[in-house]
Amino acid sequence: MARDTNPQNSTPSAGYTTRSAGDRILMQLKMHGGLTAAELGKRLGTTGEAARQQLARLAETGLVEPESQRSGVGRPRQVWSLTAAGEAHFPDTHATLTVELLESIRAELGEAALETVIAARERRTGGLYRTAMDGCDSLDEKLAVLTRLRSAEGYMADWYAAEDGTRRFVEHHCPICAAATACQGFCRSELAIFRQLLGPSVDIRRDEHIVKGSRRCTYVVSETR
Question: Distance between CA atoms of 107 and 75, rounded to whole angstroms?
Fold first, then answer.
């Protein structure tokens, strides 16, 4: 069964747990981008004023920042977003060590050895995902399993049916961002895994890319026949 067609109604992924009200606000901004205090209050089941107070505290620590956006007549909306420090609140797993290892492989063994490591990871990950998807017949079932697997790995994944008839598979966080930035072969490999899993009758392309400066990675998924 397809998920809610409105990504704004999605709930935080199981791969990242929150505790304080401040953490919950950071999660909402991470998942959905810029929001007003009133919108945050509604999402969190509290008032806009309570959310505004939390935002002020987070702004004092440099985790969020406001931006005035004018739309038509009337007062401009104050929209809150994560700063670079706020983005760093969501961990990039073992970033420094991973990048050092990649640089060592490239320097000592060459680019071909690095490609061998990426290919081995692709085979292992693809095998695990295929086992988890065993018995899935429909595209929606496969996307649901992929969402669960990637969320468990820290990608804060979600998917929804778009109005144009395609699906959108979204990863709001990249726990290997430092490694992917140092070696974009990881990004190429992951897209190859998705294509293998979803099958030849499904087209999938990356529309937004964290490594290239986007807030999230988004994939447009469509059935070709």
Answer: 56
Nearest alpha carbon to residue 143 among 162, 163, 119: 162
Asked if residues 177 and 210 have their Cβ atoms less than 8 Å apart, the reply is yes
Please list, residue by residue across 23-50, b when 16 or more beta carbons sit within 10 angstroms of its beta carbon and e when fewer do.
Answer: ebbbbbbbbbebbbbebbbebbeeeeee
Please give the structure tokens belonging to residue 84: 């670079």
Cross-strand partners of 222: 203
Which of 107, 124, 106 is CA-nearest to residue 115?
106
The helix or strand, by DSSP H or E, that contains position 192, with its residue range, turns out to be helix 185-198
**Cα distance between residue 108 and residue 112, in whole Å:** 11
Residue with token string 């699906």: 167
Q: Cα separation of 43 and 11, whole Å?
A: 10
Q: Please state at what angle helix 139-152 crosses helix 185-198, rounded to 10 degrees.
A: 140
Crossing angle for the helix pair 139-152 and 111-132, nearest 10 degrees?
A: 120
pLDDT tens, residue by residue, 116-163? 999 999 999 999 999 999 999 999 999 999 999 999 898 999 999 999
* 43 DSSP β-pair partners: none
pLDDT (average), residues 184-212: 94
Give tens-digit pLDDT for 43-102.
888 898 999 999 999 998 888 888 888 776 778 888 988 887 787 777 666 667 778 888
Which residue is listed with tokens 């959905």? 32
